């Protein structure tokens, strides 16, 4: 008896659902009670009852691999783009070894910061940008940004902030990164 009752209810639901679909023009969904009420009265209920603005498409989200360059330095204990920080940098010829060195943070890529290592030695055979002296080098030596080498920097592995790099020097570094050698 119970099974027969369930089958009857299902058959009625299918019939009603089929009739509603047949009454709707193709491609339209059945309207809710609230939508029918709005059509009859010309008003919506609740806050924001004025005319709606057309929905703007959301801006595209950068992929994890895309470098987003930004200058947002804040000496707050956290590494930010536009700052010189000290972190461990692997040697180019032997990535299993490296040393602590200053790095200019130039932006973000995914969950990582992206930086350019600084060196105190000018090399004619490398593309470098002179950034001058600053409090990141306790000996006051001039520094050069190695713009051919971008490195990922994990915020938790930064040893200390060195200084905020002046905007004109930051812009010179980022311009050299975008310029082919």
Question: What would a concise description of this structure say?
Answer:
This protein is of the alpha+beta class and 181 residues long. The protein is built from three helices and eight strands, in the order ααββββββββα.
Verbal overview:
The structure is a single chain. Strand 2 and strand 3 form a beta hairpin. The protein has two domains: 40 residues, no CATH class; 111 residues, SH3 type barrels (Roll), CATH 2.30.30. About 3% of the residues have low confidence. Strands 1, 2, 3, 4, 5, 6, 7 and 8 form an eight-stranded antiparallel β-sheet that branches. It has 181 residues and is of the alpha+beta class. 24% of the residues lie in helices and 26% in strands. The chain is elongated, with a radius of gyration of 31 Å. The termini are far apart.
